[in-house]
Design goal:
Number of strands: 12
Oligomer: single chain
Structural class: alpha+beta
Shape: rod-shaped
Distance between the termini: 41 Å
Order of helices and strands: HHHHHHEEEEEEEEEEEE
Strand content: 5-15%
Length: about 450
């Protein structure tokens, strides 16, 4: 089940790389939706803390499939539009190629016809020249006068000569026209042949683009079909696990109640230490009442924690604080019941250092085994700060950097971010208890 969940969520993350021919605005919208879905899944992971891994995986896989489905449908529409566009380009290019090829055939025929006519004209001119020569026609009127014996003979030969000249002139004109037609047709033939080669390249590219678009559309269709099946399977599996989910939710609430009682016990001990310290201070004042140099006091003690004049506590991690699950009541994702989230979950990579929010004394360092949903945990009694008693809690650590009873300073590394305690991923779980009551850390830390 966990492998299938990873496959589903991986598809969600990688969907930005889907090769669909959507516009820039459409891609931005998809990216925004994907980022929003990822943030929601990250919040769900925090809200599922404490449930068994199998149950968490089933629910998260169901939610991933549900959130992915509308995106896949949008991508399918974009892929189908891209496919239709690619097919149109393919058809238009094929039509232009066919037209150019037909035009080339017509030009070949036109060139062949013009060539034949030119050859025929050359033959006619040659025959005309031979006939003129054989008939002994003069080449000029003066020569014709000198060669004829009578006016009748002159007129007869002059008329024949003019007819021959007109025939030659007409044949030469036709020959020039045919030559121009041939040169124009040959130039067009070269241009069309080059265009055909270009169109063949375009046609091949259009076929490839259409095939790629068709593949993407088919992939989106198959993904949608798989997502529908996955939803049904995960929903059925989750239904079968609902009784277990109710039991686990009850156990989480019991663990939280026990932990709250322990914090209140520690706070009560701190309050008692402060009371005794105050009593001791008053006794010292009374015993030194006669001495003006010992008549003043430095103020309240922090007991086992370190006193501070600061009114705020520091963040447990460096860098920008990105809340993945806020402080306060939240709904159990699986059972629908209510759960008090006593801390705040912050984004942090595995192995990142976590820092003491304020100076104090380490009250407890607990391993994940037998520690319920908290995992590896550090509790620090920060004593009195600004007139209030504070205890800070750090859960799900991968390892520790302090030990119980150790004094720590503000900003000192106390452990490293991890995913212990039945959680789905590395993050910070940080709690602040003020006078025995949990408060929202984001309203305090600076």
């Amino acid at each position: 089940m966990m492998k299938r969940f990873i496959a589903v969520t991986a598809a969600l993350v990688l969907s930005l790389g889907v090769a669909v021919s959507a516009g820039a605005d459409e891609r931005d919208d998809l990216r925004g939706q994907i980022n929003e879905n990822n943030a929601q899944l990250e919040q769900l992971e925090s809200e599922l803390e404490g449930f068994d891994a199998e149950l968490q995986a089933t629910y998260l896989a169901l939610e991933a499939a549900k959130s992915r489905l509308p995106l896949a449908r949008e991508e399918l529409l974009a892929a189908e539009e891209a496919l239709a566009s690619a097919i149109r380009v393919q058809e238009e290019t094929a039509a232009r190629l066919e037209f150019a090829q037909n035009e080339l055939v017509e030009l070949d025929e036109e060139i062949a016809e013009a060539t034949a006519q030119i050859e025929s004209s050359h033959g006619s001119l040659g025959e005309l020249a031979r006939t003129t020569y054989q008939n002994g026609m003069a080449l000029s009127p003066t020569a014709l006068v000198l060669s004829t014996s009578s006016s009748k003979d002159f007129l007869s030969q002059y008329s024949a000569m003019e007819s021959a000249v007109r025939s030659q002139t007409s044949a030469l004109t036709d020959l020039n026209d045919l030559d121009a037609i041939l040169r124009n047709a040959e130039a067009r033939q070269v241009a069309v042949a080059e265009r055909i080669e270009e169109l063949k390249v375009e046609a091949d590219a259009a076929v490839v683009a259409a095939d790629e678009a068709r593949i993407v559309a088919e992939e989106r269709k198959r993904e949608i079909e798989n997502l529908v099946v996955q939803q049904q399977e995960y929903a059925a599996a989750l239904e079968n696990q609902k009784d277990a989910a109710q039991a686990q939710a009850a156990r989480i609430e019991s663990d939280n109640s026990s932990f709250s009682s322990e914090i209140q016990r520690l706070d009560a001990e701190e309050r008692e230490r402060q009371r005794k310290a105050e009593e001791e201070r008053l006794k010292q004042q009374q015993s030194a009442a006669g001495s003006s140099s010992s008549g003043s006091s430095s103020g309240s003690s922090s007991g086992s924690g370190s006193a501070s004049s600061s009114t705020g506590l520091g963040a447990p991690v460096s860098g920008p604080l990105i809340v993945t699950s806020a402080f306060g009541y939240r709904v159990y994702p699986i059972t629908g019941g209510w759960l008090m989230h006593n801390g705040v979950d912050l984004r942090s990579a595995c192995g990142n250092p976590q820092y003491s929010s304020a100076s104090g004394t380490v009250s407890a360092v607990r391993g994940a085994v037998g520690n319920g949903t908290h995992g590896n945990q550090v509790l620090i009694n920060n004593g009195t700060i600004g007139g209030n008693r504070y205890i800070t809690v750090y859960n799900h650590l991968s390892s520790f950097a302090v030990s119980a009873g150790q004094s720590v300073s503000a900003g000192q590394v106390i452990g490293y971010t991890g995913a212990t305690g039945k959680v789905t991923g590395c993050h910070v779980h940080f709690e602040i208890w003020k006078n025995g009551v949990p408060v929202d850390p984001m309203g305090i830390i600076r």
